[in-house]
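Worked example 4.2. Below are the chains of a multi-component assembly; read each line carefully before continuing.
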Amino acid sequence: QQQVKQSPQSLIVQKGGISIINCAYENTAFDYFPWYQQFPGKGPALLIAIRPDVSEKKEGRFTISFNKSAKQFSLHIMDSQPGDSATYFCAALDRGSTLGRLYFGRGTQLTVWP
Amino acid sequence: DGGITQSPKYLFRKEGQNVTLSCEQNLNHDAMYWYRQDPGQGLRLIYYSQIVNDFQKGDIAEGYSVSREKKESFPLTVTSAQKNPTAFYLCASSWGTVNTEAFFGQGTRLTVV
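Applying the procedure described above to all two chains together yields the following structure tokens:
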């Protein structure tokens, strides 16, 4: 069973546009929600992360919006650039669990046209 | 420089053979993980280890084995029992639940020929 559901699977955006990727979860014990960015042939790298005590976190052009009651969170990429073309994964973690494992969404392949 | 090193970058295996993928980290992280990545499937957890000499099965452990004899090393063996081993394999490490960021290696692409 997929613990974190991510959509869309692929996304095409024009340069300068806004890219939006959505994720949803069911386990209310999750208390850490990171986003990872992966370029072809490379390993994923942490992009930005949020804890559920805040509703929004912004770092440069990247913003996470978090809706605790709806159990949803999303990544917004403002002024999207061709260099943002990559696969994006959302994830969730229960920091209180002794297992300490991240649950990943299936990924969104973003293409930004110049 | 601190980081995670996976080797080799590309690996070819004949059907029926076992093959071992290397993962070494010098970040002094306690936890290490192996993921398998297939198109459209995201990152699926194979095995993970929170401390030396201990490891747990992930979601798709069948046909794989691991060891954790040293803190820095977490090799993955893909056995002949794995029916569809062609994939991109990623190793990661983290402090565990204390610090939540996971660092990934550059991956090993395994192809069965």
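Take a moment to check your reading of the output against the notes. The first strand of chain B starts at residue 4 and ends at 7. The two ends of chain B are 35 Å apart (CA to CA).
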